[in-house]
Amino acid sequence: MTQEPELVPPLPENYSSMVLLVDDQIMVCEAVRRALVNELDIAFHFCTDPLKAMAVADEVRPTVILQDLVMPGMDGLNLVREYRKNSSTQAVPVIVLYRALRESQRQLISANLELERLTRIDGLTGLGNRRYFDEYLGAEWKRALRAQTPLSLLMIDADNFKRYNDAYGHMAGDDVLKQIAHAIQSGAGRSTDLAARYGGEEFVVVLVDASLAQASAIAERLVQGVRDLKISHGTGHVTISVGVAKTVPTENETPHDLVKAADLALFRAKSGGRDRVVVDGV
Fold this sequence. Notes:
Blueprint: E1 17-22, H1 26-36, E2 42-47, H2 53-60, E3 64-67, E4 70-71, E5 74-75, H3 76-85, E6 94-96, H4 98-118, H5 130-147, E7 151-158, H6 161-168, H7 170-187, E8 194-199, E9 202-208, H8 212-227, E10 232-233, E11 236-237, E12 240-247, H9 255-271, E13 277-279
Parallel strand pairs: 1-2, 1-3, 3-6, 12-13
Antiparallel strand pairs: 4-5, 7-9, 7-12, 8-9, 10-11
Helix pairs in contact: 1-4, 6-7, 7-8
């Protein structure tokens, strides 16, 4: 059966060169399109199916063909030979951009990965954001459920933070949150620990394979780390309160149960005078 050619959109007027790109990867085609978008005298068309490339070339009449070498269904060199047999393309220069195009693809993939990373980072503090925390806790919950290993969570709140903002302004408040975040990141330093901004002045730390005693010790270290910052706040200094909870997941529980337990412990810490650690069930 004869292959139907790819549809060719209306071409721009008054162009001096027509570039045809033949490549099966749409990401590479997009990279080249972007590179040529400001070249007003160059028209650009791409074809992702090498079996249709000759028909497309007959229609768009390229002045140059950019050609990949490795494509499904046809070897790139064989396609070049087909161009040379065809009267409409036999004199058209064919430029093999295999390495350059693959580098463009690598750069696009790298940019997409960086964009994905940025969607998981809190812009102010540099910690994980709420979305990343939810994903990480969900993944570690499943792992701990399978392995029947402990999973601990710290819920952290900057004490009297609204008063600090009211007294010193939001820019100063943002700077305090950055310093607290750095102290939390430094204090929860294991490679498997995740420190994240939960929202506002609240933070969380996921501790993998940590006993209640280990989690409590890390929490105390975080509280002391913020004390050591000695950030003036009224007649005293900025402090944090921490609620600690630990579980070995079961089929009857969800990650929300662990968050709720740590949150209740945090509430007790706040109610008990702040600047302290309270452990769930203790």
